[in-house]
Design a protein that fits this description.
By secondary structure, the protein is mainly α. Helices cover 61% and strands 9% of the residues. Strands 1-2 form a two-stranded antiparallel ribbon. Helix 6 packs across helix 7. It is flat, with a radius of gyration of 23 Å.
Length: 171
């Protein structure tokens, strides 16, 4: 029997759907679903700082949540706090992934034979630029000047790089 893409098991699932299901089935999901829609919305926003996700979990249209934010300064303050908490979680996860890597299984002939660790160099670079812009941002971005078209990138030696890192640590 040939696989049928129209079959329900092949139903397209959005990343948003996956995230909502993941957030609402975790062991402390009971806490997440406690309170009125604002409480649920704020708890969801603190776990995933995405308006559409928090609104879907709280069963409220995103527009209604936004209108309430504009009308209620206390709710707006709580919203900002929840967003900060959620962004801190993302930053921590990015840091863990960049520094300690992500474990993934290694298979051979259908059997798991071990694990490998993947490191995201792009995430490492992004974190360094965000946390130490004085060292890791390009000169043109630090000075506010635009890079000229065709301008060559300056490549540092490993020793120059180490020196800049040490200077930044002392600063």
């Amino acid at each position: 029997m040939k696989d049928n893409p129209a079959h329900p098991k092949y139903e397209a699932v959005s990343s948003l759907d996956i995230l909502v299901k993941t957030l609402t089935r975790e062991r402390d999901a009971a806490k997440l679903l406690a309170g009125d829609w604002k409480d649920i919305f704020l708890q969801a926003l603190a776990r995933a700082p995405i308006l559409s996700v928090a609104a879907r979990i709280a069963a409220v249209p995103p527009r209604r949540a936004t209108m309430e934010r504009n009308a209620d300064s206390e709710f707006a303050r709580q919203w900002d706090e929840a967003m900060e908490e959620g962004l801190d979680e993302i930053e921590a996860a990015a840091y863990l992934s960049a520094v300690f890597g992500d474990q993934r299984p290694v298979f051979h002939q259908g059997l798991q034979i071990g694990w490998t660790t993947d490191y995201s160099h792009a995430t490492q670079s992004m974190l360094l630029k965000a946390l130490r812009p004085e060292v890791f941002e390009t000169r043109s971005r630090r000075s506010g000047k635009q890079k000229e078209p065709g301008a060559r990138m300056h490549h540092m030696t490993l020793e120059e790089f180490r020196k800049r890192v040490e200077e930044a640590k002392r600063a």
